[in-house]
Amino acid sequence: MNGARLLVALLILGSPPLPASGTGGTASADGEELQVLLQGGDLSGLATTLESLGGNVTHSLPIVSGVGGNLPRSMLKTLKLSPGVDRVVEDFNPVEVPEERDCVLDGSLQLEMSDREVRWQLFNFSDTAKGLKSIALDWPDRIGALESARLNAQDILTARQRPQGPAHLSTDRISLPPGASTLSLIFGESVVASSQNDYSIIASADGCSATLIPAYPDNDHEYYYTRVVGADLLHAEGVTGKGVTIAVVDSGFWEVPPLAEDTAGKDRVIARFDAIENKESAALLDQSGHGTHIASILLNSGAAPRSKHHSYLGVAPDARIVPVKVFDADGSGDFLDIIRGIAWVIAHREQYDIRVMNLSLAAAPRFEYWRDPINQAVLKAWQAGIVVVTAAGNEGPAWSSVGSPGNNPYVITVGATTDSWTPVDRSDDYIPDFSSRGPTPTGHAKPDIVVPGGHMTGIVPPGSTLVRDNPNYQLRSGLYVATGTSQAAAVVSGIAALLLQLDPSLSNDDIKCMLTSSAEPAINPDGTLRYSPFVQGSGHASASRAITLGEKGCANLGMNIDAAVLGTEQLLGPAEVDSNGAPTLPGLQQRLRDEPAEGASQTVHWGVKEHLERLDGHLSADRLGPLNIEWLQKYESERAKIESLSTSD
């Protein structure tokens, strides 16, 4: 396919991250043909001009006052000077060198255990055999000695080796063939009562190694993120997104029962649009798997059997869905198709009562948001009343790495947190490096909020690109574990549906205000922020807190969406540069101590309640300090509001 392309903002643990600024195709690399978007007042005249110069029209896009198509590169200058052509947006398509993996060796996310045997799959992602140097092991004492160790049926232990505890096994004579290999360990006693977190396995090759990572107790049946954001509490009260339609603009949709049907088993796919083929389709084949995974996080209607409440695996399990396909099997999409997909959603908003649009995509901003054609379409979606939720991107930790359209100041831009595989313990939650940081090129603070985006379990089609490229992230059940701000955005789209079920009169500005005003920032003991607002936004969002503590009337103040759509509003944000050249905000330097935080922390707490309760006994004004006095005032305000709610009808 000719033309500029955006790559889905998806990052898989351990794999080469897909560049959010991405490009693809070969059109402009050979200098023959270029994809262009022409903007002007007369679409018919623009089409005639393009065709008169030897081009062909592929897209009619009145939403951005333009037409798109292909043009001989030699005619580009003539096109730009043509009467009636106000602007020409060219594709951006440099030659890309595929990013290599940090290590061609990796392991499955999941151990298999039966009787006295533990099995772990190792993957060699190169095209040639890879020599394995050693395997370091540790296991619980109660399962006895290691009696056998084999890799692809080849013995690792010598006849005399029967280690009782930690072992370091030499494997110099063993090579891993390309693809999957199986490490089999047999112990003296049954392993059935043990868990994956009882074991340590590190397989080392030249220059890199594969390490068994921790696991949730039951990742096949309990996904945990609904609990982390308080959606499970709402499910128990019948708040499941019922009656709310979400458009998922992505790579397609696999219509299996947990996704195509709601909790009552009723069909909830009310329309489908293929923006690549420009047609409403009976089914949208998802060769990538990304769109299905996003939809799974949003609205999986399967029950969560381990939940203390009557809850479901998806955040909004009864929401209706309108899938819109703009990405191909590689997870890349033509920017003209993305605009066409957004335009279709807006045009059919009333027909299908579309209230939320999920955009789990990001590209490096090339223009100010008001000049970016995709953002111009997104502004019209916001003007139409649609809650637009976007991924921040996976290009962190560099400053100003938030992608487009997440750089749009109107929309809800979402960064990611990860829980270190301990969902009920927030002390080790942190914002991973991949989550893109603000400020935007126009100085706006982004992301707006953060939510879980690390190791998120969901459904993907068998044989999809995600599975082929990273089979080590597929669980035995066929479910797939992925990480990224794409997944985080899906969580927030689901929360928006829950809020809209409770109060359909809420505007998109209301939803944004409720989420940001109730979010919980990461706070140090002295009351300073652990992360800059350019990293955590307003903090960690929660569905239950948004409902009980969320405010209205605080989002997008002083902004005029009608003027933004007309192009007469061109807002610059408040970001500044400090003496060290780092971005900051007025007054922020005294309120921030942003040392890197990863893993368990004895000092960082998320939210005012947890922060102040750890200081219990030290809450007198003379001991708190000025910042904590402010947090105490907020704490008292939140407590009073909750007490008022608990005593009201």
Automatic annotation (TrEMBL):
Q: Where is the Peptidase S8/S53 domain?
A: 241-525
Q: Pfam families in the record, alphabetically?
A: Peptidase_S8
Q: Which residues form the active site?
A: 250, 290, 486
The coiled-coil segments of this chain are none
Question: What sections of the protein cross the membrane?
Answer: none
**Gene3D superfamilies tied to this protein:** Peptidase S8/S53 domain
What InterPro entries does the record tag this protein with?
A: Peptidase_S8/S53_dom, Peptidase_S8/S53_dom_sf, Peptidase_S8_subtilisin-like, Peptidase_S8_subtilisin-rel
GO terms (molecular function) for this protein are: serine-type endopeptidase activity
Signal peptide (residue range):
1-20
Q: Which domain of life is it from?
A: Bacteria
Picking any one GO biological process from the record gives: proteolysis
Q: Which UniProt keywords apply?
A: Hydrolase, Protease, Serine protease, Signal
Q: Which family does it belong to?
A: Belongs to the peptidase S8 family.
Q: What is this protein called?
A: Alkaline serine protease, subtilase family
